[in-house]
Write a structure and sequence with these properties.
Shape: globular
Strand content: under 5%
CATH superfamily: Farnesyl Diphosphate Synthase
Helix content: over 70%
Radius of gyration: 19 Å
CATH topology: Farnesyl Diphosphate Synthase
Mean pLDDT: 96
CATH class: Mainly Alpha
Bound molecules: geranylgeranyl diphosphate
Number of helices: 17
Number of strands: 2
Number of domains: 1
Structural class: mainly alpha
Distance between the termini: 16 Å
Largest sheet: 2 strands, antiparallel
């Protein structure tokens, strides 16, 4: 994926992002030096700031400076994302996140969970200041994230996991917050209702492609490309679309089915990953991603600003660039 700000190609977005950074940090500062180390740990580590970018792009079109409300909306969505990363890394016992030691590894599970809750509390307070519609929207989105995550965990190690179950899980755990990031931007930017619906639809489709890409990369990418070891999903028994399609394939399915369904030692995990990576399942997943890109393009096309429409469509297309198939 190319640099998302470049892909969007909208003037003043870079400037908006630069103004976002100090606001993001101060929004989680508590005055307690230890807690501040924990709450700012992943903010300082970087990240793509994709959700704030979506919010700023849909709020301002990159054509005017971001107003305080636009920036606060962008902070609120990134804080929910950050909280989900804190909690997710506890669930996954992750060691690395954003190329630095993960919060759970550095500070322990209890601190990571409670600090994640603290980030959510800050997001909720900021959203409340933006009005009941945005506060309610973010709360509902948080509920969807939890539902998506539970759907995923419930089907772990199940070789019979259905594709429907996979799509339900990624709709909740990833696409919901992308959709909400776009929607909050449109709301703080004062867009009309049609525009609000169009950008929400775009964000939802974008989020689906984003997670499909993530799941393909977990199968085909290298350590260096990912900034963390690949094959994490297989290790945790999370059978994503490429794996489910490879299980359906008469050439690869039978062998894979005998391996999966249980925790795997590293050599078996690498073998399973190689089988999926070499199968037609990867190109088939990319093809499904293309359908969501096409839907995202249709949604973007009904946005009134041609620059925003073109920028968002470019960003969606960039997700599948360089992938096999
Ligand atoms: C407490 C908010 C909260 C949720 C509880 C743990 C959980 C339920 C949900 C997990 C949601 C999750 C981590 C989904 C994965 C989303 C995803 C693709 C993350 C990676 O996003 P990037 O690539 O990350 O945008 P950066 O680091 O660039 O911001």
């Amino acid at each position: 994926m190319v640099n998302p700000t470049k892909a969007l190609g909208l003037p003043r977005l870079e400037e908006g992002l630069q103004r976002l950074e100090p606001l993001l940090k101060t929004s989680v500062v508590t005055g307690d030096a230890f807690l501040d180390d924990v709450t700012t740990h992943l903010i300082a580590a970087g990240g793509k700031r994709l959700r704030p970018l979506l919010a700023l792009a849909t709020a301002t079109g990159g054509a005017r400076p971001a107003a305080d409300e636009d920036l606060l909306g962008a902070v609120a969505v990134e804080l929910v994302h950050l909280a989900s990363l804190y909690h997710d890394d506890v669930i996954d016992e992750a060691k690395v996140r954003r190329n630095v030691e993960s919060v759970n590894s550095r500070f322990g599970n209890l601190v990571a969970i409670v600090a994640g809750d603290y980030l959510l509390a800050r997001s909720a307070a900021i959203a409340a200041g933006l009005g009941t519609e945005i506060a309610g929207l973010l709360a509902d989105t948080l509920g969807l994230l939890c539902q998506g995550q539970v759907a995923e965990v419930r089907s772990s190690f199940q070789v019979t996991r259905t594709k429907d179950d996979y799509f339900t899980a990624i709709t909740g755990k990833t696409a919901a917050l992308m959709a909400t990031s776009c929607r909050i931007g449109a709301l703080t930017g004062g867009a009309n209702r049609d525009e609000v619906e169009a950008v929400t639809k775009f964000g939802q489709c974008f989020g689906m492609v984003f997670q499909l890409r993530d799941d393909i990369l977990d199968v085909v990418a290298t350590d260096a490309e990912l900034g963390k070891p690949p094959g994490q999903d297989l290790a945790e028994g999370i059978y994503t679309l490429p794996v489910l399609l490879a299980l359906d394939d008469p050439d690869t399915g039978p062998e894979l089915a005998t391996m999966l369904g249980q925790p795997l030692a590293q050599p078996e995990r690498d073998k399973a990953r190689t089988i999926v990576a070499a199968s037609p399942a990867v190109a088939a997943t990319v093809e499904i991603g293309r359908r969501y890109v096409a839907e995202a393009e249709v949604a973007a096309a009904s946005i009134s600003s041609p620059d925003v429409a073109a920028g968002l469509a470019r960003l969606a297309r960039s997700l599948l660039e360089g992938l096999p198939g």
